[in-house]
Design goal:
Helix content is 36%, strand content 19%. The protein has helices at 2-14, 30-41, 53-67, 92-95, 98-101, 123-131, 152-155, 166-171, and strands spanning 19-24, 46-50, 73-76, 87-91, 111-115, 136-141, 160-164. Strands 3-4-2-5-6-1-7 form a seven-stranded parallel beta sheet. The chain is globular and about 60 Å long. The termini are far apart.
Length: 188
């Protein structure tokens, strides 16, 4: 899945696309796919945009596994301001603040990755997308279809770099096995 995504992304970029969408079921490795794709692209500066600090920290660990010490990886959140990093893992709530965004040049980042790209329609995400001008916007989501009339596909110019939905991921044994346990309510 990740190899096919990287190859398709390269084809899109060679065709002049500056936006791409990875549609991939939860648990299939979107973060690692993005890390491997960026290793292939070798950008100087990147923003990896997430909606929660915990997710940013997990993404940093994944990117560290792929890049080692070849890039500096920093966190921009309510508790951390490591903005001088090569790869900046930022919460959307921090980057949505105008005073934070304006600390960066509009073309400072080569690639901006938006995790949970189905949120792209929100004003905060739109403010970020209207400010920055990277050479590549990469959106990642398991669920691009929305009920609020915002067209996620259009936001990424209908450039789907790869798509694998839950059923296909299960059929191809790409997900970790899991078990549900029900606990009965008891009265004492």
């Amino acid at each position: 899945m990740q190899a096919a995504f990287i190859q398709n992304l390269e084809v899109l970029r060679n065709q002049g696309a500056n936006k791409a969408l990875l549609i991939s079921a939860t648990g299939t490795g979107k973060t690692y796919a993005a890390a491997f794709a960026l290793r292939n692209i070798n950008p100087s500066k990147v923003i990896f945009l997430v909606h929660r600090e915990q997710i940013a920290k997990q993404a940093i660990k994944s990117f560290k596994n792929v890049f080692g010490n070849s890039k500096t990886l920093g966190l921009l959140s309510g508790t951390s301001k490591e903005i001088k990093s090569d790869f900046l893992f930022s919460t959307m709530s921090m980057m949505a603040k105008k005073e934070i965004r304006q600390q960066f040049k509009i073309d400072e980042f080569d690639v901006i990755v938006i995790d949970e790209a189905h949120r792209t329609g929100a004003k905060s995400y739109q403010d970020i997308m209207n400010y920055f001008e990277p050479t590549l916007w990469l959106g990642m989501t398991a669920s691009p279809e929305r009920t609020d009339d915002f067209d996620v596909f259009n936001a990424y110019d209908h450039n789907i770099a790869y798509e694998i939905r839950l059923q296909q991921a299960m059929d191809e044994d790409l997900l970790c096995p899991f078990h549900y346990y029900g606990i009965q309510d008891i009265e004492v």
